[in-house]
TrEMBL record:
NCBIfam families, sorted: PRK00558.1-5 (NF001824), uvrC (TIGR00194)
GO MF, any single term: DNA binding
Family affiliation: Belongs to the UvrC family.
UniProt-recorded name of the protein: UvrABC system protein C
Source species: Allochromatium humboldtianum
């Protein structure tokens, strides 16, 4: 690719110099902001057409704002389509179809690198240790599958820190959902069999698993091990029930079913995910689109952006034929590295699933419209209550969470004109302050956040909310002043009498008395929603940080104390708590523990008392 430079004063003067090959064009306004990104087979012909034809109202509005045009030449039209989708996602031009899809799909991870592999929820880069199964359309779908697997195959799902320091089986063993490899109640060979069957099930080879279990059941029955045979029988029945519920009749491959629904100017795209013949769940997206956009154009824009960041299945079943379908299909095939089919006219079971996707799209749209109307009323009520000139389009709220000053985490949540914008949420691990000093924690979090705002990485918010009263508000204002950010709308939200919900007090800079809104005020409901979300996000981060600290046991940092000796100690004393209460002589009395090692172990638990 090569970018054509130069910036003419009149965009029409660029037309004669445009190349005739494929590429991507960007329409810019007088301030340099990108208004629209498009692709073309012939850049010269396509861009020139904007200035010499009868235009729709939307295109006429676009052309009236164009001050400059930039183009990037590509080798093929498919390459132009992929580049267009990447630019739309990063630049968010207001005249394009905009897909707010901020998260990657989650997976199930099998940690095959461990001696006793575990199953876990995973979201992140595909290049990671172990095996990944999925993707699943939502975190809920992953967790439901993990619950099902726990009932079918006794493979552990506990964290490594919990697993390494067990001295007796946990509750999961008692209810027959784990075989307790942590304390040696299953042989490595038996555990490996369960892991292999789990992987086959997740690979869509459940038929093989059933055949293996039937064989094991018959072998156990022949050996007169009737209790073991009954266990296999129960597992086979449970597996068949799961398959009946999840299977898509007549399917054994990977496909996505995508349907659109529209109400007024709001669109919903419903995506059903089928992998290896199993329905893994569905999710709804609400892309932004110009008012006069047709479903075929919207679908083309949605597919290009969605599959720029998500796995492309073998087949896409669509509610309508997208614009330039052949170019889109070729671009998706290039990205997937194999053939991709786009199907619109389908029959039988596929037609039933497509209609189900349409129904779900319409239902999700109705729910969205109802919640949007209520959210718009809350925004307007907030503007009136705080006497703002305009409705706030971006609000950021901060909260602090810690346990007696330890593992302090600050959260920043972001709400815009449509609701929570989770892609812009951030957490800050707070260090280097006096434990429990919330003022210093807020100062550090806001300084780190708004340094980046000052550098242009994030837009300046219309409203900043702080969980706290006048003191916290003053600390925040001082931090912003030091960064050179003046005139921002700051609100402190403190608890009311008896910490009763609905009696919160709002503190504004320059006002001695707080603003107290009625408990049934829509503005108060919105403030509570934002504040509660900041609190949830902060406390979740704090718990994760605290859990990570606890997972790293004091025993693991002691030289000369390997896994077998740790296990022996924990069994002898009944766990970490019993070991912590033991003296040096008691610890040295355990087989394999010398007196110098016992002294190091004792010191590790009593550093604070030294």
């Amino acid at each position: 690719m090569n970018t054509v430079p130069e910036t003419p004063a009149d965009p029409r003067r660029r037309l004669k110099d445009l190349p005739v090959g494929p590429g991507v064009y960007r329409m810019l306004d007088a301030g340099g902001a990108v208004l629209y990104v498009g692709k073309a087979k012939n850049l010269k012909r396509r861009v020139s057409s904007y200035f010499g034809r009868t235009l729709t109202p939307r295109h006429a509005r676009l052309v009236s704002l164009i001050a400059d045009i930039e183009v990037t030449v590509t080798r093929t039209e498919g390459e132009a389509l992929l580049l267009e989708s990447q630019l739309i996602k990063s630049l968010q031009p207001r005249f394009n179809v905009l897909l707010r899809d901020d998260k990657s799909y989650p997976y199930i991870q099998l940690t095959t690198q461990d001696d006793y592999p575990r199953l876990a929820f995973y979201r992140g880069p595909r290049r990671t240790e172990g095996r990944l199964f999925g993707p699943y359309p939502s975190a809920w779908a992953v967790r439901e599958t993990l619950q099902i697997l726990q009932k079918l195959f006794p493979v552990r799902q506990c964290e490594d820190g919990f697993f390494r320091h067990r001295s007796r089986p946990c509750l999961q063993y008692q209810i027959k959902r784990c075989s307790a490899p942590c304390v040696g109640l299953v042989t490595p060979e038996q555990y490996a069999e369960d892991v292999a069957r789990t992987a086959k099930f997740l690979d869509g080879r459940a038929g093989e698993v059933i055949d293996e279990l039937i064989g094991a059941m018959e072998t156990a029955a022949t050996a007169l091990e009737f209790e073991r045979a009954a266990q296999y029988r129960d597992r086979i029945q449970a597996l068949r029930r799961v398959l009946e519920r999840q299977s898509v009749i007549g399917e054994d491959g990977d496909l996505d079913i995508i349907a659109a629904a529209r109400e007024t100017d709001v669109w919903c795209m419903q995506v059903f995910v089928v992998r290896r013949g199993r329905h893994l769940g569905n999710t709804a997206f609400f892309p932004k689109a110009p008012a006069d956009m047709e479903e075929s154009a919207l679908l083309a824009g949605f597919l290009a952006q969605f599959y720029a960041v998500h796995e492309v299945p073998d087949t896409l079943i669509l509610s309508t034929c997208p614009d330039e379908a052949e170019i889109l299909r070729a671009a998706l095939a290039e990205r997937a590295g194999r053939a991709v089919r786009l199907q619109v006219e389908v029959r039988g079971e596929r037609a039933r699933w497509l209609e189900m996707a349409r129904d779900n799209a319409r239902f999700a749209l109705q729910q969205r419209l109802g919640s949007q109307a209520g959210y718009a009323r809350r925004l307007e009520s907030l503007r009136e209550a705080l006497e703002l000139a305009d409705r706030p389009e971006r609000m950021e709220c901060f909260d602090i969470s810690h346990t007696q000053g330890e593992h302090t985490v600050a959260s920043c949540v972001v709400f815009d004109g449509e609701g929570a914008r989770k892609s812009d949420y951030r957490r800050f691990n707070i260090t280097g302050i006096t434990p429990g000093d919330d003022y210093a924690a807020l100062d550090q979090a806001l300084t780190r956040r708004y340094k980046r705002v000052g550098q242009g990485e994030y837009p300046i918010p219309d409203l900043i909310l702080i969980d706290g009263g006048r003191g916290q508000l003053a600390a925040v204002n001082d931090a912003l002043q030091e960064l050179g950010l003046h005139g921002l709308n700051l609100i402190g939200v403190s608890k009311g009498p008896d910490r009763r919900p609905g009696a919160e007090r709002l503190w504004l800079l320059g006002r001695e008395a707080p603003v107290i809104l009625p408990s049934d005020s829509p503005a108060m409901h919105l403030i509570q929603q934002i504040r509660d979300e900041a609190h949830r996000f902060a406390i979740t981060g704090h718990r994760q940080r605290r859990a990570r600290a606890r997972v790293t046991s004091a025993l693991e940092d002691i030289p000369g104390l390997g896994p077998k000796r740790r296990q022996r100690l924990l069994k002898h004393f009944g766990g970490l708590r019993g070991l912590e209460r033991a003296g040096v002589e008691d610890i040295a009395g355990v087989e394999g523990i010398s007196r110098p090692l016992a002294q190091r172990i004792h010191a590790a638990f009593h550093r604070d008392q030294a």
